[in-house]
Specification:
It is a single chain. About 30% of the residues lie in helices and about 20% in strands. By secondary structure, it is α+β, with helices and mostly antiparallel strands. An eight-stranded mixed β-sheet has the order 5-6-7-4-3-2-1-8. Strand 1 and strand 2 form a beta hairpin. The protein starts with a helix and ends with a strand.
Length: about 300
C-alpha cells in the first residue's frame, strides 16, 4: 500500500537508509489513505542544521543519532487539495512517533560504532522537493510550531543523474577495480551514490561541479522536545515533552484549522474519482520494506 501510494508523487521516492519507520495516515471516517510518512537516518552533512544546533564535527558524530529525516511526507489526492499535506506533516511531531522510535531504536546498537546509543527522537528534518515550500512554511497549531524553515541546501546532489547513466558509471568503476563500485552497504560511508558518481566522473576527467544541479531545497526542522536544540548541542538533560500531543489531538487541530475550512471553500474535491490515480502513476524502482505502521485519525 505504501509503495503504491508513493507512485503518485511527482518526484522519485527514495527508499531511505539506516533506521527507518514508515506510516500510512488513514482516514477512519471514509476508510481511505490520506497520506504517507517515512522517516529515516538523516544525511551526515547538512550545514544549516548543524549551524542551528551549534555542532562541530565531533558533536554531530556523537548526537546525530537523535535526529531523523522525513524523506517521504505528504498527502494523496484528493486530500492534498484540502491541505492534507499540512496535517500529515504535523503528525511527525507526535507522541506516537516519539514512542515508536524509542521502541524500535532507543536501545539499538550502532552498525558503524558498535555502541549502544540510547537514542531519543529529539528532532526531525525535512526538505522541499524543489525551492521554497508552501506546505511546511509557518506550520503551527494552537501556537506551537511543528516545522520551521532553517535555510536552503547548497544545490549539490545526484538527482539529475538518471539511473541508466549511474549504472554505467558504476560498471565503469567496477571495470577499473575502484572500491566505490560495490561499497554500498550502510556503514561504509555517507551517500554512496553521490560518492560513486563523483569518483566515476573524476576518473573520466570531468569536473566535480557537474554534480552542482543548482536546485536549492528549503530545509525544515521540527523539535519534538521543547529543549531539543539544547539537548542536541550539549548531550545533557531530559527531554521536555509537555507540548507533545498524540495523533488524535494533532489530527483534530489540523482538521479544524486547514481541512474543514478548505473543504467548505473548495468543494471540487468531491468530484475526484479513484480512476484518476492512473494518470498519476509513473515507473518507479521498488522500495525496500522496513518497519511500517498506520496512523488512524
Amino acid at each position: 500500500m505504501f509503495r503504491f501510494a508513493s507512485l503518485t508523487w511527482s518526484v522519485p521516492v527514495s527508499s531511505g537508509f539506516g533506521r527507518r519507520l514508515r506510516y500510512l495516515v488513514w482516514d477512519g471516517h471514509n476508510d481511505k489513505v490520506i497520506g504517507v510518512i517515512a522517516i529515516g537516518d538523516p544525511v551526515f552533512n547538512l550545514s544549516v542544521r548543524d549551524t542551528l544546533v551549534g555542532w562541530d564535527v565531533h558533536d554531530r558524530s556523537a548526537r546525530l543519532v537523535n535526529v531523523m529525516d522525513a524523506y517521504v511526507l505528504g498527502a494523496l489526492p484528493p486530500y492534498n487539495t484540502l491541505l492534507g499535506g499540512k496535517l500529515v506533516a504535523c503528525l511527525v511531531r507526535t507522541r506516537d512517533i516519539y514512542d515508536d522510535f524509542a521502541s524500535a531504536y532507543g536501545r539499538s546498537v550502532g552498525i558503524i560504532s558498535g555502541k549502544r546509543k540510547r537514542a531519543r527522537l529529539l528532532a526531525v528534518t525535512t526538505s522541499s522537493s524543489m525551492g521554497r515550500s508552501s506546505v511546511y512554511n509557518r506550520l503551527k497549531l494552537d501556537g506551537t510550531p511543528y516545522f520551521r524553515s532553517i535555510g536552503y541546501t547548497g544545490g549539490w546532489g545526484h538527482f539529475h543523474i538518471p539511473d541508466d547513466l549511474f549504472f554505467e558509471l558504476r560498471d565503469y568503476l567496477r571495470s577499473i577495480g575502484h572500491r566505490y563500485a560495490d561499497q554500498h552497504r550502510f556503514g561504509q560511508g555517507p551517500n554512496w551514490r553521490l560518492r560513486t558518481t563523483r569518483a566515476a566522473l573524476a576518473e573520466l576527467g570531468f569536473r566535480d561541479d557537474l554534480l552542482r544541479h543548482g536546485v536549492q531545497r528549503e530545509v525544515f526542522f521540527s523539535t519534538l522536545a521543547a529543549n531539543a536544540t539544547e539537548l542536541l548541542r550539549t548531550g545533557k538533560g531530559t527531554p521536555d515533552l509537555a507540548s507533545l500531543l498524540g495523533v488524535p489531538q494533532v489530527a483534530q487541530l489540523a482538521l479544524d484549522r486547514w481541512l474543514v475550512p478548505r473543504s467548505e471553500r473548495r468543494p471540487e474535491y468531491r468530484s475526484w474519482k479513484r480512476e484518476q490515480v492512473l494518470s498519476l502513476l509513473a515507473k518507479r524502482r521498488p522500495l525496500n520494506t522496513p518497519r511500517q505502521a498506520s496512523l488512524a485519525i
